[in-house]
């Protein structure tokens, strides 16, 4: 006969059961699947380590932003997700700061439809965040995981992390058409990890497009960030009729900022990523003196130069710079370059590529969340040079 041990009984009595908490845009209940909450904040307030908050389909329009200021644990994270694969939109239009007037300030606590601060061990899945004072805004938050978020048409950056930030993973992000009327386009990026430090952060298999400032911006972030399979295009154009337009328009702005003596070098790693059709540069160190690693990236048809590394002894290997309107590359002599298009020579023109058609890359993701593979910007030579969606590098 089964005789439960004393230890087993104590464990049973003390281990909290992970709860499933439900929210619906029309809910009036207390968080069960049959009587969901109507407010995401109520669910966050009720959640404990290990719990999962399920958002039922529809559009949520909160009048104050969702404050996430508690933590899960490494073994029992808190999850905020769409229920199964239902379509969930968090619309920030009713929040303060959408937008504030030109040159007005946006208080920290109001930033983000999701404002995540001092909150660790969260997981977020399959959410669309629009019209917010930032879509996702995270400050001093670590060990968080974001999968399949879409952040677009926000009044500041789509997705921003700041402050002390370690071991955050962002995968399958789509961030587009974000703009900041408050600053005439000076700083709304697709993805920004800025003004802070902490190791182990990564952005993967993500698309950043048509944002007013840069696609990706690591301004004043002082630790290495890993960027893989990130596609950045169409950033830095004045699509909103701003008067004194301030948008920068780089595909990947890899750190730097401030006067020389305030720049802390950060050895970012960028692999298998593409910048094209941006208003200015494809990939730029922006004054970051860190020894970065760039492998198998492609800068094509940008409005200015392809790769600009004038401050750093970075390592550039097997990248392609072609058909950019400015110089293909602008490199300081301490850059270690090998196997790049400009090293191997030959013709690098539109006719060098199997396909100039980005439709598949820009289209629906696969059911696993990944961007679908295509021949976009693969060299006709078949050589392993430049970015490819067809295989891991
Ligand atoms: C980040 O994760 C790695 C691997 O799990 C771990 O070694 C490291 O201590 C973590 N960093 C922080 C700041 O917790
Ligand atoms: C290359 O192709 C792109 C896309 O069709 C086009 O915008 C660009 O003008 C072409 N550039 C050259 C130099 O042919």
UniProtKB/TrEMBL annotation:
Boundaries of every Pel9A-like right handed beta-helix region domain copy: 140-316
Protein name: Polysaccharide lyase family 9 protein
Lineage start: Eukaryota, Fungi, Dikarya, Basidiomycota, Agaricomycotina
GO molecular function: carbon-oxygen lyase activity, acting on polysaccharides; metal ion binding
Subcellular location(s) of the protein: Secreted
Keyword Plastid attached: no
Entry-linked InterPro entries: Pectin_lyas_fold, Pectin_lyase_fold/virulence, Pel9A-like_beta_helix, PL-6, Polysaccharide_Lyase_9
Family label: Belongs to the polysaccharide lyase 9 family.
UniProt xrefs under PANTHER family: PECTATE LYASE (EUROFUNG), PECTATE LYASE PEL9
Organism of this sequence: Cylindrobasidium torrendii FP15055 ss-10
Source domain of life: Eukaryota
Major localisation: secreted
